[in-house]
Amino acid sequence: MEEMKKSGFVSIIGRPNVGKSTLLNAIAGQKVAITSNKPQTTRNRIRAIYTAEEGQIVFVDTPGMIGQTKNKLGEYMMAAAKGALHDSDAILWLIEPSSYIGEEDKKIAGLLSRSDAPVILIINKVDTIPKEQILAIIDSFRSLMDFAEIIPISALRGKGVREVTDTIFRYLPYGPMYYDEDAVTDQTERQITAEMIREKALHALDKEVPHGLAVVIDTMTDREKTGKDGNKETITEIEATIICERESHKSIVIGKGGAMLRKIGTNARYEIEKMLGHRVYLKLFVKVRNNWRDSLTQVRNFGYDRREI
Predict the structure, then answer these.
(1) Is the Cβ–Cβ distance between 238 and 281 less than 8 Å?
(2) Percentage helix, strand, coil, to 5, in the chain?
(3) Is the dihedral of CA 239, 245, 251, 252 positive or negative?
(4) 118 near 148, Cβ under 8 Å?
(5) What is the spatial distance between Cα 181 and Cα 274, in angstroms, rounded to a whole number?
(6) Are 232 and 225 a contacting pair, CB within 8 Å?
(7) Model pTM greater than 0.90?
(8) pLDDT-based confidence at 81, cuts 50/70/90?
(9) Which of 23, 102, 214, 285 could be disulfide-bonded to 243 (CB atoms 3.0-4.6 Å)?
(10) What is the pLDDT of residue 29?
(11) Half-sphere exposure of 220 (CA within 13 A, CB side)
């Protein structure tokens, strides 16, 4: 008889920029979600699959919980974050290492307290504070609600990550595997490619410009090329468009003499080649869609559709 294993869905919840995507990548062992030091980097629900002897955990990375939504994109992101809670077998609430409890944390606690799923509090970035401060943080957040577990970690350094997965398995039900054993994400290569380009734009650009960017993959095709030595190699040719909200933003994305766009393209190509395992030709374009984040149609066209949550 086949051995019963545990499996389930686990949502990662928290305010913007607390390290949710960094934790997801550390668990997956490779990049499945883009990261940056800018809030609202994650816009979609992203699934990462972790399979071990005990069973399978499907992690759902969500957009950061934001207080007030300012546009249609913000409404989509908040709906994606809240919607993930309903189908979760367990919830990870990520916080930064501070005993201060702000209004956003109180709102998140209110949402989580209405969930039937066990909530595991993850104190991230503990490598940035003295160890003696951790107990004060635990005492402070325990006053908000009852947690199934509280785990201090550093997702960036990989400290405590294994304890997180081991702990989750204790709370999951027995059931079937949802994905193949070698699967690490439900995203397509096109989706990941678009996000990698957006990540490099986030890293390269400042102020408000990154929040108004979207990336669309126009074409992504493989072809074989025969080298001088007679060996064949695969090359992926990609054409992608960076969408921005204003003409003034377009000139910033392109940069003087195209320098900024080349920088974004070079850095993105490096990441895409690591993912695909072969050479990539990447050609970037920049277009303006005025105030696209305020348009429900445009938001849906760029892949942020509440009907698919």
Answers:
(1) yes
(2) 40, 25, 35
(3) negative
(4) yes
(5) 22
(6) yes
(7) no
(8) low
(9) 214
(10) 83
(11) 15
